[in-house]
User: What shape does this take?
Amino acid sequence: MIKYIGSKRALLPQILAAIAGVLPPGHTVLDLFSGTSRVGHALKGAGYRVLANDHNAYAHTLATCYVQADAETWADQARLILADLNRLPGAAGWFTQSYCVESRYLHPDNGARIEAIRNAIAALAAEPELEAILLTALLEAADRVDSTAGLQMAYMKQWAPRALRPLELRLPALHPRPAAGPCRATCADAEDAASLQADLAYLDPPYNQHSYLRNYHVWETLVRWDAPETYGIARKRADCRTRISAFNSKPGLAPALARTIGRLRAPILLVSFNDEGFVGRTAMEAMLAHKPYVQVLEIPYNRYVGAKIGIHNPKGEKVGTVGRLTNLEYLFLASDQPLALPPALLQGQAAEPAAA
Assistant: This one.
């Protein structure tokens, strides 16, 4: 899966153990802020029926691939198409000019191949689940040869070694449909999707001012394929200025999260947050107080690898200073009935960087 700040790769064992400890496979889990769908994908593989939601187009595509699409339906057909797409020569156009020449997220040779493949996928006019699988393969292939520190707010002064490798499409790791029933991916604001019926709702909301749209605007454009107007050295999409989420606002996050939690219909809630967020532990516990039983798990966690690298300008000069390198990740479990987190989890475990 793509490199992603806030990825739950390292925390996945604790999240899965917490869910399995209070809800056996075969039930329905709502993943309200699905991101890369790492959690939803793992839950589907464990036998849960998953409802995944995210308001960004690239995240919805990932969820359609990893959560909604079933291996037995699409894997063989997608594998054949990807083999054909892998053989396409490059055809440079606006994408290569914007993201490989005017900016340097990808080497122009790979940019031209990405452009040819993306145009070919559009020409197929495939069924949405199949198209999502093909687009996910392209996103992940592009991510493996990018020239960034993991965020698309800036790019390397010199090409990263991986950027010089040729692009290669691979079939995403699809899961078969769970016995619990078909999974589903939606693309809605969290407040609207919160009313979906589920046995457990898992929330991993944005926690500070950093917008996922701005951090991954190239992937948003690659999925939308809308040749947007761009601005600045980073060539961000113009709508990064207008598609502003309350979840990335210090005064807006707590009210938006409280409204979202209030609309949830699930009897069990699991909220992932950390101590760098705009909402502190006490305030989060207060938001969940409508559930009579609330438990909190604290997990020491090494921050995103970019925190160690530091922030650099386009000339490669380091700007600013590196803050703390560790934080605390919280898992808040709130339920209508008394539930016990697995004892092994309550001991706490250190986690590694999310996007190394």
